Amino acid sequence: MKVGILGTGNVGRTLAEGFAREGHDVVVGTRDVDALMSRTEPDPMGNPPFSAWRSEHEDVAVGTFAEAGAHGEVLVNATLGSASIDVLREAGLADAPDRIVIDASNALDHSGGFPPSLFVVNTDSLAERIQREFPDARVVKAWNTMTASLMTNPGLLAGGDHSIPICGNDDDARRQVADLLRSFGWHDVVDLGDLTAARGMEAYLLFWLGLYGATGSPLVNTKIVR
Ligand SMILES: NC(=O)c1ccc[n+]([C@@H]2O[C@H](COP(=O)([O-])OP(=O)(O)OC[C@H]3O[C@@H](n4cnc5c(N)ncnc54)[C@H](OP(=O)(O)O)[C@@H]3O)[C@@H](O)[C@H]2O)c1
Question: Measured from the CB, is residue 80 less than 6 Å from ligand 1?
C-alpha cells in the first residue's frame, strides 16, 4: 500500500520504518526537504538529525507535505498538533475524498512550561477538529496514547500483551486501521467507536505523563482487562 507519513519527528520516523518493514511504499513529508536534509544538529528532543536517520532507511522516500499527501492511499498525521490542520491542507486532504487519515497527534500546549496542557479538551478533540475541517476524509485516531517506539513494535513491552485504542466515524476505515495495527503485532485493538472517543484518547496524555513520572520510563502502556 502507498502510505504518506506527514511528520519527520520520532513518530514519523518510527511509523515510516514500521510501514516500510511491512512492505508498504512510504513517503515521509516535511515542510522543506532541503532544510530538513541539511540539518546536522540533533533536534530539541535530542534525536539525531533526520539525514542521519534517513541514511539508515533508504527504503523510505522523503518529500514535501504535498508530495507525501499525493502519494498516500493512507495518510498518517504525525505532526505538531497545533500545526496539523494546516499541514493536512498542504497535503491536499481537502481534495482527496474518502482518504483514511490515521491521526497520531496530541493537542499539546507547552506555553505554560512542563507539564504541557491540552489546547482542546472535554467537549472536543483535535481529531474532531480535523474531521470537521476535512469532512470527506475518514479520520481514525490511533497511536497517540503511547510513546513512539511502541507504535509499530508493541513487543518491546510485556511481550506485546497490552492494548491500543482506536476511534473514528467510518466503520470500514476503523476496520482497515485495526487490520493494519494487527499486522504490526497489536493483538488487542480496542475499537471505541465514533470520533467523540478521541476526547478521552487525547486527554489520556495527562494520565500518561503521570505514568511516565511514576515509572521513570516512557516505555509504558495500559492493558484493558475485561
Ligand atoms: N513523540 C512521541 O513519542 C509521541 C507519542 C504520541 C503522540 N505524539 C504526537 O505525534 C505528533 C508528532 O510528534 P513527534 O514527537 O514525532 O514530533 P513533533 O516535534 O511534535 O512534530 C514534528 C513534525 O511537525 C512538523 N511541524 C512542526 N511545527 C510546524 C509548523 N509550524 N508548521 C508545519 N509543520 C510543523 C515538523 O515539520 P518539519 O518536518 O518541517 O520539521 C515535523 O514534521 C505530535 O502531535 C505529538 O504530540 C508523539
Answer: yes
